[in-house]
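Tip: read the tokens left to right.
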């Protein structure tokens, strides 16, 4: 399993994975939306970055992440926005490897935490997260604008 930033040659495989992620969460996502995110992860001025998991020459997973300010802690953390592994590659270690690469990146950047959210009913992923991280007591809220 190779974990690395995506390159321009990865776009179609990345799009396939990201469309799968949107479908998993039943989110309508257009090609234009994927193009926007692809642009973000390749724009050094934008905070969003990405890793992909490659297994035997094929992309099997992705992770999108970014730094975030932690004013109360006077530090910076890393936020994992999206993590997806192709259903055919689940159990391959891709998710573990992506999270490990993100933790290594966080240590290199001087982040004090890696944080993410997931759906309450995402049981398979939560089993992995429970093994790798501490579940917090915080509930999340959204105001739709």
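Filled-in amino acids:
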């Amino acid at each position: 399993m190779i974990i690395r930033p995506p390159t321009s040659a990865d776009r179609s495989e990345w799009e396939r994975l990201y469309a799968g992620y949107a479908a998993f969460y039943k989110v309508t996502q257009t090609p234009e939306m994927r193009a926007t995110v692809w642009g973000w992860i390749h724009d050094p001025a934008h905070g969003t970055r990405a890793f992909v998991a490659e297994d035997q020459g094929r992309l099997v997973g992705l992770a999108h992440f970014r730094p975030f300010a932690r004013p109360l802690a006077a530090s910076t953390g890393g936020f994992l926005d999206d993590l997806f592994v192709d259903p055919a590659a689940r159990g391959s270690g891709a998710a573990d490897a992506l999270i490990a690469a993100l933790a290594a990146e966080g240590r290199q950047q001087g982040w004090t935490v890696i944080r993410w959210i997931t759906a309450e009913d995402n049981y398979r992923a939560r089993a992995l997260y429970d093994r790798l991280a501490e579940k917090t007591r915080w509930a999340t809220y959204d105001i739709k604008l």
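The mean pLDDT is 96. The longest strand covers residues 58-70.
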